[in-house]
Amino acid sequence: MQTSVTTIERFIFDQEHRYPEATGELSNLLYDIALASKIIAAAIRRAGLVNILGSANARNVQGEEQQKLDVIANETIKNCLSHTGRVCVMGSEEDENIIPVPPEYPVGKYAILFDPLDGSSNIDVNSAVGTIFSIYRRVSMEGRGTASDVLQPGCKQVAAGYVMYGSSTMLVYTTGQGAHGFTLDPTIGEFLLSHPRIVTPRSGKYYSVNESNFGRWEKAMQAAVRGLKGESAEAVAPKNSRYIGSLVADFHRNLIAGGIFLYPADSNNPRGKLRLLYEASPMAFIAEQAEGSATDGVNRILDIVPTQLHQRTPLVIGSREDVGFVADTLRRAAATRSSGPVVQPAL
Ligand code: AFP
Fold first, then answer.
1. Which residue from 50, 205, 208, 254 has the fewest beta carbons nearer than 10 Å?
2. What whole-number percentage of the chain has pLDDT above 70?
3. φ, ψ of residue 45 in degrees (nearest 5)
4. Higher pLDDT pick, 17 / 252
5. What's the pLDDT band for 1 if we cut at 50, 70, 90?
């Protein structure tokens, strides 16, 4: 039996102690999130048994049907964070506006954004779902936090991570010192270090995209995806298709095995479907820390300055060479369009 393990607490503590000026507030905030995710994991495990699956008969701010577990996950995270004195304001994919800390509690120096249960349409079919979080240092100088604290570009994140509730529960996070993964040991209720310093392959085996949208993408994106499938074998290694429809699960597989995830803009979603602040930015921070990259097709995700809490963005994320191939294909098509006769890339 293994008797020497690294718990998430010990790992966070060791990382914090590299910075003598650290107050421990961020470390404690990360423990709060780990606690919330254990509570959510337990609710998900029991879901089929206690009949909490299914719709809560409510719609969230995006107009999507809220599942009961969405509501549970959202409330769990808010409850685990709001009384601690570590955050000044929160933002949730499930809430229309920023979430203030209740007046009876003190505020702290961090602002946090989260997607409490990403991929929730997978809940009723027992597929993997996840929680995504993103932490910024507050920029408002006083008071109880404002929208400016959460409307920051991804490059200003001080920490980001996700929890995947799959065959096991995993938490992957970064504070800018590499991306590290922990697996929940349900017998002792602790996240244990299982994937230290994750490095994603430079080019991967998989491409993940909802190809039912193919006919609604611009021609250049169609050409890029055809390239990933093997039509540009001289430029990029041909890939296998894998798509779950749960960003956390699709991203996690490609992070470990190598590959690329795309959610391009299409004629139904001209700005893309995924949310910059709750999905793209935190995943981009992790991807870059794992030596991958993330763009909206052309621009680095972490450089995008948000103007709206629920802003959407196209997302192309994963192994560096594969993301580069898509960016090159789109750039070449744009250059062709702007210089003379309009030539569409061949399908
Ligand atoms: P839900 O949380 O509504 O299931 O959306 C999941 C998601 O935001 C992301 O996790 C998936 O990658 C993407 O949407 C799937 O979208 P499609 O169903 O359009 O492929």
1. 50
2. 91
3. -60, -35
4. 252
5. low
* Amino acid identity at 10: R
Would you state the pLDDT for residue 347?
A: 39
Q: Tell me the pLDDT tens digit for each residue of 81-128.
A: 999 999 999 999 999 999 999 999 999 999 999 999 999 888 878 889
Neighbours of 341 (CB within 10 A): 6
b/e string for 211-224 if b means 16 or more Cβ within 10 A?
eebeeebbebbbbb
Atom nearest to 130 CA in ligand 1: 10
Of the pLDDT bands very low, low, confident and very high (cuts 50, 70, 90), residue 299 is very high
- CA–centroid distance, 154 to ligand 1, in Å, is 21
The sign of the CA dihedral 151, 154, 158, 162 is positive
Residue 119 Cα to ligand 1 middle (Å): 5
CA distances from 303 to 174, 203, 294, 306 (A): 18, 23, 10, 9
Residue 265: is its pLDDT beyond 60? yes
DSSP one-letter string for 171-215: EEEESSS-EEEEEEETTTTEEEEEE-S----SS-SEEE--GGGGG
Among candidate residues 262, 280, 273, 282, the one with its CA nearest the CA of residue 171: 282
Atom 5 (ligand 1): residue with closest C-alpha?
119
Mean pLDDT on 312-339: 94
- pLDDT for 227 equals 97
Binding pocket residue ranges, ligand 1, CB within 6 Å: 64, 118-121, 210, 245-247, 250, 273-274
* Greatest pairwise CA separation for the chain in angstroms: 69
- Contacts with 2 (C-beta within 8 Å, 6 or more apart), sequence order: none
User: Could you tell me the distance, in angstroms and rounded to a whole number, from the CA of residue 213 to the centre of ligand 1?
Assistant: 13
Cα 62 to averaged position of ligand 1 atoms, centre (Å): 12
pTM for this model (two decimals): 0.93
What is the residue whose two structure tokens read 């719709």?
55
Residue with tokens 């206690």: 50
Q: Would you give the distance in Å from CA 4 to the centre of its chain?
A: 31
Helix/strand/coil for 248: helix
Of 199, 240, 232, the residue nearest 347 (C-alpha) = 232
